[in-house]
Amino acid sequence: MKHALILAAILPLSACAIVPNSPIVDSQHEVAQQGSLVGLLRPVQLGRVVVTPMRVTEDSRCPQNVQCVHAGRVVVETRIDGPGWRQTQPLVLGEPHSVRDVRVTLVEVQPAMRVDPRITSAQYRFRFSPD
Questions:
Q1: Going by fewer Cβ within 10 Å, which terminus of the chain is more open, N or C?
Q2: Judging by beta carbons within 10 Å of its beta carbon (0-12, 13-18, 19+), is residue 52 exposed, middle or buried?
Q3: Torsion of CA 35, 40, 44, 50, to 10 degrees
Q4: Gap between the Cα atoms of 79 and 104, Å rounded
């Protein structure tokens, strides 16, 4: 009887095991596969980390069909979750970023910049790549 009680107490805990080499992600959304275009607050698996674009802090790209002196840039505040760690970093479109032996690059931002109407947060989509 004593062994049955111990076993009954241990079995439910075995279902809650944490895999030590997997990122801990607290999101309401399913984690998308690597290579997917994702919206804000949508996590995507990127090798051994999970990357989540949190918010666009700068979008100064040149609008379509407009001649600009400077191409501009996009900066996205991005949460990077690794096994047992988390960092939030501003990622610039096309510039690799290294954190804890992991390289992450924001490689695509959609839609293209336009003059009117302005892009809303809900319309943005991002693609990341491990380098």
A1: N
A2: buried
A3: 130
A4: 11
Q: Which of 41, 107, 44, 47 is nearest to 77 (CA)?
A: 41
Which pTM was predicted? 0.78
- Maximal CA-CA distance, the chain: 81
Which residues have a Cβ under 8 Å from the Cβ of 19 and sit 6 or more positions away? none
Tell how strand 125-130 and strand 49-59 pair up. unpaired
Structure tokens belonging to residue 47 = 């090798």
In angstroms, the Cα distances linking 91 to 3, 20, 41, 42, 98 are 54, 27, 15, 16, 10
Instruction: For residue range 80-110, list pLDDT tens digits in order.
Output: 999 999 999 999 999 999 999 999 999 999 9
Distance between CA 33 and CA 7 in Å, rounded? Answer: 37
Under 8 Å between Cβ of 100 and 85? yes
The two tokens of residue 106 are: 């924001």
Residue 125 tokens read as 């989509």
Q: Which tens digits make up the pLDDT trace of 65-77?
A: 888 888 889 999 9
